[in-house]
Amino acid sequence: MYVPAAPMCPKNLRYAREVFRAFEQGVSPDDFSREDYEKAWEERFTVGGRRQTV
Questions:
Q1: What is the pLDDT along the chain (54 residues), one digit of tens a residue?
Q2: Ordered DSSP codes for 8-30
Q3: pTM value surpassing 0.90
Q4: What does the alpha-carbon distance between residue 18 and residue 32 come to, in Å, rounded to a whole number?
Q5: Is 51 left (phi over 0), alpha (psi -120 to 50) or beta?
Q6: Rounded to whole angstroms, how far apart are CA atoms 17 and 37?
Q7: Can you tell me the distance from the alpha carbon of 52 to that of 3, in angstroms, rounded to the nearest whole number?
Q8: Cα(20)–Cα(37) distance, rounded to whole angstroms?
Q9: Counting Cβ atoms within 10 Å, is residue 42 exposed (0-12), middle (13-18) or buried (19+)?
């Protein structure tokens, strides 16, 4: 797990929002290799809790 930690400034706030959007979708953030393997994980942790299995 990567947790960005830096002083609060407009640039870092923008980055945190971009990373959060990637997390919501289960995709890799733009500054990491494009793997997106979490998209297909069953029971992947999501903002609202774990995804239900089918």
A1: 677 677 889 998 998 899 889 888 888 888 888 888 777 777 777 777 655 454
A2: --HHHHHHHHHHHHHHHHT---T
A3: no
A4: 12
A5: beta
A6: 20
A7: 25
A8: 16
A9: exposed
